[in-house]
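Please, structure for the following, as tokens.
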Amino acid sequence: MLVDVEQGRPFDVLPDRSSETFLAWLEAHPGAEVICRDRATSYTREIKQAGTGAIEVADRWHLLQNLSVVVEKTCHQHRSCLRKHAQERAQPDAPVPDTWVPDQPAALPKTAIVERTLHRHADILELVDKGWTISAIARRLGMDRKTVRHFRDTDVAVLIESARHRRTGLLTPFHPYLQARFFNGYTDASRLFREVRERGFGGAVQTVRRYVATLRDGTAIPPTAPTPSSRAITSWIMRRPESLSEDDEVRLSDVCLACPDFARAREIAQRFTALVRERTGHLLPDWISEVERDAPQPIRGFARFMKFDIDAVTAGLTLQYSSDVVEGHVSCIKTIKRQMYGRASFHVLRARILIQP
């Protein structure tokens, strides 16, 4: 779908999204001066080949979305700093004997989920050491590329903790209570189940019994102090400072105090969002240079990628044009397609799109 961003209306619909079809349309309809798009650069070659001389404009919303993704990745990579900071400040409600926090890591329970995680992690690292690419490993093991990358970049202890948390996630908020009660002599799982159920636990008694069994054999993971999620921290960083509540501002300040990389990510993100809101694209090269000198690795990758599309990004941070008007029409098209499902051709669909009010 091609949209006139000045009038906010679609003016043509192409039968497919291939670059060849787009090139043919450009050659048959010369005169385009500005072409707005998202971060995908797949049409850049066709725009230049058609000789339109049009200015490409990268969409500002997609720029902020891409930055948000790398900020969240930075937050995820440094969650250990948050846990350590929170544990140092935490004050336990009841004393717990040292026996349940051994100096040496407890042996992992031989459960199916632990064994599966260990084997999967070992298989992926073995293939990585052999020089296999992420895509090749995903095809070999029948996994998603994101899952392969996650296993490659994450410590095995974190993977196991995450897997076990997914299995007993409902019980996680009650771990500190159960551990305190267990080490104070209340070891009957049925009684502990009744107690946590009265406090809001909505799971089954088998979940409590499995957890009590890990307390008995010393394989239970000590409860971690509560920390904000990576997504919540990213939301605080990406929002305008004046829009944060007093509580959110305090929590964000505490997060930045826990790890310098959080503070650096906040500073860099705020500078970039200022470029977007103030339309000062001429300052983008300075921002990229600063990020490449001193920034968390995911944000450096974002800056390096922008250098390959510097003209379109600079135009997006300077001109008033944007492709945001396209998204509303995309939703309208989805509605029309559902209404016509199986009962019309492309030509009828195109006509309905172009005549919609």
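Residues 260-278 form the longest helix (19 residues). Residues 14 and 25 are 8 Å apart (CA to CA).
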